[in-house]
Design goal:
The chain contains 14 helices and 12 strands. The protein is an alpha/beta fold and 437 residues long. The strands form 3 sheets. The chain has a 6-stranded mixed β-sheet with strand order 1-2-4-3-5-11, with helices on one face. A 4-stranded antiparallel β-sheet has the order 8-9-7-10, covered by helices on one side. A two-stranded parallel ribbon has the order 6-12. Strand 3, helix 5 and strand 4 form a beta-alpha-beta unit.
Length: 437
Protein backbone atom coordinates (compact mmCIF):
# COMPACT_ATOMS: atom_id res chain seq x y z
CA UNK A 1 0.00 0.00 0.00
CA UNK A 2 1.26 3.50 -0.88
CA UNK A 3 0.89 5.97 1.96
CA UNK A 4 -0.74 9.37 1.54
CA UNK A 5 2.56 11.06 2.33
CA UNK A 6 4.30 9.17 -0.48
CA UNK A 7 1.53 10.06 -2.91
CA UNK A 8 1.73 13.72 -1.93
CA UNK A 9 5.50 13.66 -2.24
CA UNK A 10 5.29 12.14 -5.72
CA UNK A 11 2.70 14.68 -6.80
CA UNK A 12 4.81 17.55 -5.53
CA UNK A 13 7.87 16.23 -7.37
CA UNK A 14 5.87 15.90 -10.60
CA UNK A 15 4.49 19.43 -10.23
CA UNK A 16 7.99 20.81 -9.56
CA UNK A 17 9.31 18.97 -12.61
CA UNK A 18 6.55 20.35 -14.83
CA UNK A 19 7.08 23.88 -13.47
CA UNK A 20 10.80 23.59 -14.14
CA UNK A 21 10.30 22.27 -17.65
CA UNK A 22 7.74 24.92 -18.48
CA UNK A 23 10.15 27.55 -17.24
CA UNK A 24 13.03 26.40 -19.43
CA UNK A 25 11.21 25.19 -22.53
CA UNK A 26 9.29 27.60 -24.69
CA UNK A 27 5.95 26.38 -25.97
CA UNK A 28 5.48 26.38 -29.73
CA UNK A 29 2.14 28.09 -29.20
CA UNK A 30 3.86 31.12 -27.68
CA UNK A 31 5.50 31.98 -30.99
CA UNK A 32 8.73 33.86 -31.65
CA UNK A 33 8.57 35.95 -28.46
CA UNK A 34 8.75 32.85 -26.27
CA UNK A 35 11.51 31.43 -28.44
CA UNK A 36 13.48 34.65 -28.03
CA UNK A 37 13.12 34.49 -24.25
CA UNK A 38 14.31 30.89 -24.21
CA UNK A 39 17.33 31.81 -26.30
CA UNK A 40 18.11 34.73 -23.97
CA UNK A 41 18.05 32.36 -20.99
CA UNK A 42 20.37 29.93 -22.74
CA UNK A 43 22.74 32.78 -23.64
CA UNK A 44 22.78 34.07 -20.06
CA UNK A 45 23.40 30.60 -18.64
CA UNK A 46 26.30 30.06 -21.04
CA UNK A 47 27.69 33.48 -20.17
CA UNK A 48 27.67 32.67 -16.43
CA UNK A 49 29.75 29.56 -17.01
CA UNK A 50 32.15 31.37 -19.33
CA UNK A 51 32.58 34.21 -16.83
CA UNK A 52 33.49 31.94 -13.92
CA UNK A 53 35.89 29.97 -16.12
CA UNK A 54 37.51 33.19 -17.35
CA UNK A 55 38.29 34.21 -13.75
CA UNK A 56 39.46 30.72 -12.69
CA UNK A 57 43.13 31.63 -12.18
CA UNK A 58 42.34 34.80 -10.25
CA UNK A 59 39.78 32.99 -8.09
CA UNK A 60 42.33 30.33 -7.22
CA UNK A 61 44.83 33.06 -6.33
CA UNK A 62 42.29 34.60 -3.94
CA UNK A 63 41.70 31.25 -2.29
CA UNK A 64 45.44 30.57 -2.00
CA UNK A 65 46.16 33.93 -0.40
CA UNK A 66 43.53 33.26 2.26
CA UNK A 67 44.61 29.63 2.75
CA UNK A 68 48.29 30.56 3.17
CA UNK A 69 47.48 33.29 5.72
CA UNK A 70 44.94 31.71 8.11
CA UNK A 71 43.35 34.23 10.46
CA UNK A 72 41.07 33.69 13.43
CA UNK A 73 37.59 35.14 13.77
CA UNK A 74 37.31 38.95 13.82
CA UNK A 75 41.01 39.17 12.88
CA UNK A 76 40.72 38.33 9.17
CA UNK A 77 42.44 41.56 8.10
CA UNK A 78 44.40 40.09 5.20
CA UNK A 79 41.40 38.17 3.82
CA UNK A 80 39.25 41.29 4.10
CA UNK A 81 41.75 43.32 2.09
CA UNK A 82 42.32 40.62 -0.54
CA UNK A 83 38.61 40.10 -1.18
CA UNK A 84 37.46 43.72 -1.10
CA UNK A 85 40.30 44.91 -3.35
CA UNK A 86 39.39 42.24 -5.90
CA UNK A 87 35.68 43.10 -5.81
CA UNK A 88 36.39 46.80 -6.27
CA UNK A 89 38.51 46.08 -9.35
CA UNK A 90 35.75 43.81 -10.68
CA UNK A 91 33.28 46.71 -10.65
CA UNK A 92 31.34 46.21 -7.40
CA UNK A 93 30.44 49.02 -5.02
CA UNK A 94 32.27 47.92 -1.89
CA UNK A 95 31.70 48.93 1.74
CA UNK A 96 34.77 47.86 3.68
CA UNK A 97 34.60 47.25 7.44
CA UNK A 98 30.84 46.87 7.13
CA UNK A 99 29.35 46.96 10.65
CA UNK A 100 32.22 44.69 11.82
CA UNK A 101 35.89 45.52 11.28
CA UNK A 102 36.52 42.51 9.02
CA UNK A 103 33.11 42.29 7.34
CA UNK A 104 32.30 43.75 3.93
CA UNK A 105 29.37 44.40 1.61
CA UNK A 106 29.82 44.47 -2.17
CA UNK A 107 26.77 45.38 -4.26
CA UNK A 108 25.81 45.53 -7.92
CA UNK A 109 22.58 46.09 -9.80
CA UNK A 110 19.42 48.13 -9.47
CA UNK A 111 17.87 48.98 -6.11
CA UNK A 112 14.21 48.20 -6.67
CA UNK A 113 12.01 46.74 -3.88
CA UNK A 114 9.87 45.02 -6.51
CA UNK A 115 12.89 43.09 -7.86
CA UNK A 116 14.82 40.28 -6.13
CA UNK A 117 17.79 41.18 -3.95
CA UNK A 118 20.04 38.12 -3.72
CA UNK A 119 22.87 37.74 -1.21
CA UNK A 120 25.86 35.43 -1.69
CA UNK A 121 27.75 34.75 1.53
CA UNK A 122 31.53 34.54 1.96
CA UNK A 123 33.33 33.11 4.99
CA UNK A 124 37.10 33.33 5.51
CA UNK A 125 38.06 32.73 9.14
CA UNK A 126 40.33 29.84 10.13
CA UNK A 127 40.68 27.53 13.12
CA UNK A 128 43.36 27.85 15.82
CA UNK A 129 46.35 25.62 15.20
CA UNK A 130 45.11 23.88 12.05
CA UNK A 131 44.32 26.76 9.70
CA UNK A 132 41.59 26.36 7.08
CA UNK A 133 40.48 22.94 8.26
CA UNK A 134 36.90 23.84 7.39
CA UNK A 135 37.75 25.17 3.94
CA UNK A 136 36.56 28.73 4.44
CA UNK A 137 39.05 29.88 1.83
CA UNK A 138 36.98 27.86 -0.65
CA UNK A 139 33.71 29.27 0.70
CA UNK A 140 35.06 32.75 -0.03
CA UNK A 141 36.09 31.63 -3.50
CA UNK A 142 32.64 30.17 -4.20
CA UNK A 143 31.02 33.41 -3.07
CA UNK A 144 33.23 35.58 -5.28
CA UNK A 145 32.81 33.22 -8.26
CA UNK A 146 29.03 33.27 -7.86
CA UNK A 147 29.12 37.04 -7.49
CA UNK A 148 31.02 37.43 -10.75
CA UNK A 149 28.58 35.15 -12.57
CA UNK A 150 25.54 36.98 -11.20
CA UNK A 151 27.06 40.38 -12.02
CA UNK A 152 27.48 39.19 -15.60
CA UNK A 153 23.77 38.30 -15.70
CA UNK A 154 22.74 41.72 -14.40
CA UNK A 155 24.97 43.48 -16.92
CA UNK A 156 23.89 41.52 -19.99
CA UNK A 157 20.16 41.18 -19.41
CA UNK A 158 17.91 43.37 -21.59
CA UNK A 159 15.75 44.14 -18.55
CA UNK A 160 16.56 45.30 -15.01
CA UNK A 161 16.54 42.12 -12.97
CA UNK A 162 17.35 43.25 -9.45
CA UNK A 163 20.26 43.57 -7.06
CA UNK A 164 23.19 41.44 -5.87
CA UNK A 165 25.15 41.62 -2.62
CA UNK A 166 28.30 39.66 -1.92
CA UNK A 167 28.48 39.74 1.87
CA UNK A 168 31.67 39.00 3.77
CA UNK A 169 30.88 37.47 7.15
CA UNK A 170 33.70 37.00 9.68
CA UNK A 171 34.06 34.65 12.64
CA UNK A 172 31.78 31.75 11.69
CA UNK A 173 33.91 29.45 13.86
CA UNK A 174 32.18 30.28 17.12
CA UNK A 175 32.10 34.07 16.91
CA UNK A 176 28.70 34.41 15.27
CA UNK A 177 29.66 37.12 12.80
CA UNK A 178 26.44 36.71 10.83
CA UNK A 179 24.39 37.05 14.03
CA UNK A 180 26.08 40.35 14.83
CA UNK A 181 25.45 41.55 11.27
CA UNK A 182 21.81 40.48 11.62
CA UNK A 183 21.46 42.54 14.80
CA UNK A 184 22.71 45.55 12.85
CA UNK A 185 20.10 45.00 10.12
CA UNK A 186 22.48 43.68 7.44
CA UNK A 187 20.03 41.05 6.16
CA UNK A 188 16.81 43.10 6.13
CA UNK A 189 16.67 43.83 2.40
CA UNK A 190 17.62 40.36 1.10
CA UNK A 191 15.06 38.10 -0.55
CA UNK A 192 17.40 35.09 -0.72
CA UNK A 193 20.74 34.17 0.87
CA UNK A 194 23.02 31.35 -0.28
CA UNK A 195 26.47 29.88 0.13
CA UNK A 196 28.19 26.50 -0.29
CA UNK A 197 30.45 24.68 2.17
CA UNK A 198 33.15 22.05 1.46
CA UNK A 199 32.74 18.67 3.20
CA UNK A 200 33.71 15.07 2.39
CA UNK A 201 30.43 14.51 0.47
CA UNK A 202 28.16 16.52 -1.85
CA UNK A 203 24.63 16.96 -0.50
CA UNK A 204 22.05 19.70 -0.91
CA UNK A 205 20.63 19.31 2.58
CA UNK A 206 22.25 17.86 5.67
CA UNK A 207 21.16 18.37 9.30
CA UNK A 208 22.84 21.44 10.78
CA UNK A 209 22.19 21.66 14.49
CA UNK A 210 21.23 24.50 16.78
CA UNK A 211 24.07 25.14 19.19
CA UNK A 212 24.77 27.11 22.32
CA UNK A 213 28.04 27.56 24.16
CA UNK A 214 28.02 26.96 27.89
CA UNK A 215 30.60 28.24 30.39
CA UNK A 216 30.55 26.84 33.95
CA UNK A 217 32.55 27.94 36.99
CA UNK A 218 32.53 26.25 40.41
CA UNK A 219 33.79 28.19 43.43
CA UNK A 220 34.88 26.32 46.54
CA UNK A 221 37.39 26.93 49.32
CA UNK A 222 41.12 26.20 49.21
CA UNK A 223 42.83 24.23 51.96
CA UNK A 224 45.86 21.99 52.46
CA UNK A 225 44.87 18.68 50.89
CA UNK A 226 46.91 16.58 53.35
CA UNK A 227 46.86 18.63 56.55
CA UNK A 228 43.40 20.19 56.65
CA UNK A 229 41.22 18.72 53.89
CA UNK A 230 38.10 19.11 56.07
CA UNK A 231 38.49 22.87 55.89
CA UNK A 232 38.26 22.88 52.10
CA UNK A 233 35.36 22.85 49.63
CA UNK A 234 36.50 20.96 46.54
CA UNK A 235 35.59 22.72 43.31
CA UNK A 236 37.23 19.94 41.28
CA UNK A 237 34.85 17.41 42.77
CA UNK A 238 32.00 19.64 41.62
CA UNK A 239 33.41 19.82 38.09
CA UNK A 240 33.88 16.05 37.92
CA UNK A 241 30.37 15.43 39.25
CA UNK A 242 28.96 17.86 36.68
CA UNK A 243 30.81 16.08 33.90
CA UNK A 244 29.59 12.68 35.13
CA UNK A 245 26.02 13.91 35.59
CA UNK A 246 25.90 15.02 31.98
CA UNK A 247 27.50 11.76 30.83
CA UNK A 248 24.92 9.72 32.74
CA UNK A 249 22.13 11.78 31.20
CA UNK A 250 23.25 10.76 27.70
CA UNK A 251 21.22 7.53 27.94
CA UNK A 252 18.11 9.72 27.87
CA UNK A 253 19.33 11.91 25.01
CA UNK A 254 17.55 11.78 21.69
CA UNK A 255 19.86 10.31 19.00
CA UNK A 256 20.22 13.74 17.37
CA UNK A 257 21.21 15.59 20.57
CA UNK A 258 24.87 16.40 21.13
CA UNK A 259 26.61 17.66 24.28
CA UNK A 260 30.41 17.74 24.47
CA UNK A 261 32.78 19.54 26.79
CA UNK A 262 36.09 19.83 28.59
CA UNK A 263 37.39 20.87 32.00
CA UNK A 264 39.44 23.95 31.16
CA UNK A 265 40.63 24.62 34.74
CA UNK A 266 40.97 21.78 37.19
CA UNK A 267 42.92 23.45 39.98
CA UNK A 268 46.49 24.53 40.67
CA UNK A 269 48.41 21.80 42.56
CA UNK A 270 47.47 18.38 43.94
CA UNK A 271 48.24 19.40 47.54
CA UNK A 272 45.77 22.28 47.41
CA UNK A 273 42.03 21.66 47.52
CA UNK A 274 40.91 23.40 44.30
CA UNK A 275 38.85 26.48 45.09
CA UNK A 276 37.93 27.20 41.48
CA UNK A 277 37.30 25.06 38.41
CA UNK A 278 35.84 25.77 34.99
CA UNK A 279 34.21 23.78 32.21
CA UNK A 280 33.21 24.64 28.67
CA UNK A 281 30.47 22.81 26.75
CA UNK A 282 28.68 22.93 23.43
CA UNK A 283 25.02 21.92 23.51
CA UNK A 284 23.34 20.98 20.19
CA UNK A 285 19.93 19.85 18.96
CA UNK A 286 18.19 19.65 15.54
CA UNK A 287 15.67 22.38 16.37
CA UNK A 288 15.93 25.60 18.34
CA UNK A 289 12.95 24.49 20.46
CA UNK A 290 14.68 21.19 21.32
CA UNK A 291 17.85 23.05 22.24
CA UNK A 292 15.95 24.87 25.01
CA UNK A 293 14.70 21.54 26.39
CA UNK A 294 18.21 20.10 26.39
CA UNK A 295 19.67 23.21 28.02
CA UNK A 296 17.18 22.90 30.89
CA UNK A 297 18.28 19.30 31.50
CA UNK A 298 21.95 20.27 31.53
CA UNK A 299 21.31 23.07 34.03
CA UNK A 300 19.99 20.50 36.54
CA UNK A 301 23.22 18.53 36.16
CA UNK A 302 25.24 21.68 36.85
CA UNK A 303 23.28 22.79 39.88
CA UNK A 304 23.09 19.36 41.49
CA UNK A 305 26.90 19.05 41.41
CA UNK A 306 27.20 22.35 43.25
CA UNK A 307 24.66 21.27 45.85
CA UNK A 308 26.35 17.93 46.44
CA UNK A 309 29.79 19.47 47.07
CA UNK A 310 28.79 22.70 48.79
CA UNK A 311 30.27 24.83 46.03
CA UNK A 312 28.85 27.94 44.51
CA UNK A 313 28.30 27.83 40.78
CA UNK A 314 28.15 30.38 37.98
CA UNK A 315 27.10 29.37 34.48
CA UNK A 316 26.24 31.24 31.34
CA UNK A 317 25.05 30.27 27.88
CA UNK A 318 26.79 32.12 25.07
CA UNK A 319 25.61 35.47 23.75
CA UNK A 320 25.22 34.24 20.16
CA UNK A 321 23.56 30.80 20.02
CA UNK A 322 23.48 29.23 16.55
CA UNK A 323 20.09 28.28 15.11
CA UNK A 324 19.32 25.07 13.25
CA UNK A 325 19.43 25.41 9.46
CA UNK A 326 16.07 25.87 7.72
CA UNK A 327 16.56 24.71 4.14
CA UNK A 328 14.23 26.31 1.62
CA UNK A 329 12.89 23.45 -0.50
CA UNK A 330 12.26 25.45 -3.67
CA UNK A 331 15.73 26.97 -3.49
CA UNK A 332 17.24 23.53 -2.88
CA UNK A 333 15.48 22.08 -5.93
CA UNK A 334 16.66 24.96 -8.12
CA UNK A 335 20.20 24.59 -6.84
CA UNK A 336 20.25 20.82 -7.39
CA UNK A 337 19.12 21.11 -11.00
CA UNK A 338 21.64 23.85 -11.74
CA UNK A 339 24.46 22.06 -9.96
CA UNK A 340 23.76 18.88 -11.91
CA UNK A 341 23.80 20.88 -15.15
CA UNK A 342 27.42 21.96 -14.52
CA UNK A 343 28.65 18.49 -13.59
CA UNK A 344 28.11 18.26 -9.84
CA UNK A 345 27.52 14.68 -8.67
CA UNK A 346 25.50 14.27 -5.47
CA UNK A 347 25.96 11.57 -2.84
CA UNK A 348 23.26 8.89 -2.87
CA UNK A 349 24.19 7.62 0.61
CA UNK A 350 21.13 8.24 2.79
CA UNK A 351 23.14 7.77 5.99
CA UNK A 352 25.31 10.75 5.04
CA UNK A 353 22.26 12.87 4.29
CA UNK A 354 20.83 12.13 7.73
CA UNK A 355 24.02 12.55 9.79
CA UNK A 356 24.31 15.93 11.57
CA UNK A 357 27.20 17.98 10.25
CA UNK A 358 27.68 20.50 13.05
CA UNK A 359 26.47 24.07 13.53
CA UNK A 360 26.82 27.38 11.73
CA UNK A 361 25.57 30.95 12.07
CA UNK A 362 24.13 30.51 8.57
CA UNK A 363 21.36 28.72 10.48
CA UNK A 364 20.44 32.06 12.07
CA UNK A 365 20.34 33.67 8.63
CA UNK A 366 17.94 30.98 7.46
CA UNK A 367 15.44 32.04 10.15
CA UNK A 368 15.15 35.55 8.67
CA UNK A 369 15.87 35.03 4.94
CA UNK A 370 15.08 32.04 2.66
CA UNK A 371 18.45 30.26 2.47
CA UNK A 372 20.49 27.34 1.22
CA UNK A 373 23.76 25.92 2.52
CA UNK A 374 24.70 22.96 0.29
CA UNK A 375 27.82 20.96 1.05
CA UNK A 376 30.27 19.90 -1.65
CA UNK A 377 32.99 17.31 -1.99
CA UNK A 378 36.26 18.98 -2.90
CA UNK A 379 38.62 16.08 -3.48
CA UNK A 380 39.08 14.50 -0.06
CA UNK A 381 37.24 12.06 2.20
CA UNK A 382 38.95 13.56 5.26
CA UNK A 383 36.64 15.04 7.87
CA UNK A 384 36.32 18.76 8.48
CA UNK A 385 38.44 20.21 11.28
CA UNK A 386 41.40 17.89 10.60
CA UNK A 387 44.86 18.65 9.24
CA UNK A 388 44.16 16.45 6.21
CA UNK A 389 41.17 18.63 5.35
CA UNK A 390 43.37 21.72 5.71
CA UNK A 391 45.79 20.29 3.16
CA UNK A 392 42.98 19.41 0.74
CA UNK A 393 41.46 22.90 1.01
CA UNK A 394 44.65 24.31 -0.47
CA UNK A 395 45.09 21.63 -3.12
CA UNK A 396 44.66 22.28 -6.88
CA UNK A 397 42.29 19.29 -6.88
CA UNK A 398 39.71 21.38 -4.98
CA UNK A 399 39.39 23.96 -7.74
CA UNK A 400 37.11 22.13 -10.18
CA UNK A 401 34.61 21.36 -7.41
CA UNK A 402 34.75 24.91 -6.06
CA UNK A 403 34.16 26.59 -9.43
CA UNK A 404 31.22 24.26 -10.10
CA UNK A 405 29.58 25.55 -6.93
CA UNK A 406 30.09 29.17 -7.94
CA UNK A 407 28.41 28.44 -11.28
CA UNK A 408 25.54 26.55 -9.63
CA UNK A 409 24.75 29.40 -7.23
CA UNK A 410 24.91 31.99 -10.01
CA UNK A 411 22.58 29.95 -12.23
CA UNK A 412 20.18 29.54 -9.31
CA UNK A 413 20.15 33.33 -8.94
CA UNK A 414 19.38 33.64 -12.66
CA UNK A 415 16.28 31.47 -12.24
CA UNK A 416 15.05 33.67 -9.39
CA UNK A 417 15.65 36.93 -11.24
CA UNK A 418 13.73 35.61 -14.26
CA UNK A 419 10.63 34.32 -12.45
CA UNK A 420 8.46 36.17 -9.94
CA UNK A 421 6.51 32.94 -9.44
CA UNK A 422 9.64 31.16 -8.22
CA UNK A 423 10.40 33.91 -5.72
CA UNK A 424 6.84 33.79 -4.39
CA UNK A 425 7.12 30.02 -3.96
CA UNK A 426 10.42 30.48 -2.13
CA UNK A 427 8.79 33.01 0.21
CA UNK A 428 5.83 30.72 0.84
CA UNK A 429 8.22 27.87 1.73
CA UNK A 430 9.96 30.23 4.14
CA UNK A 431 6.73 31.06 5.97
CA UNK A 432 5.96 27.36 6.40
CA UNK A 433 9.50 26.53 7.53
CA UNK A 434 9.64 29.24 10.17
CA UNK A 435 6.24 28.23 11.54
CA UNK A 436 7.46 24.66 12.01
CA UNK A 437 10.90 25.50 13.39
Amino acid sequence: MISFNKLRSSANKLLAKRTWNNFYNCSVTNGSKAMSKSNDMADLRSSVIETVDRYAVELNNLSQQIWKNPELGFKEYSAHTVLTDFLEKAGFKVEKHYKIETAFKATFGDVDPSKPHIAVICEYDALPGIGHACGHNLIAEVGIAAGLGIKDILEKSDTKLGQLTVLGTPAEEGGGGKIILMKHGAFKTFDVAMMAHPTPATVTKIPILARSKLMIKYIGKASHAAGFPWDGINALDAAVLCYQNISCLRQQFKPTWRVHGVITNGGVKPNIIPDQTELEYSVRAPKDSELKILEAKIVKCIESAAQATGCKVEYEFGEHPYSAMLYNNTLCELYEKNASSVGVEFSMDESIKQSPLGSTDMGNVSTVVPSIHPCFHMGTLAANHTTDFTTAAGSPAAQTFTLQQGKALALTALDIYQSTDLLQKIKQDFITDTQNA
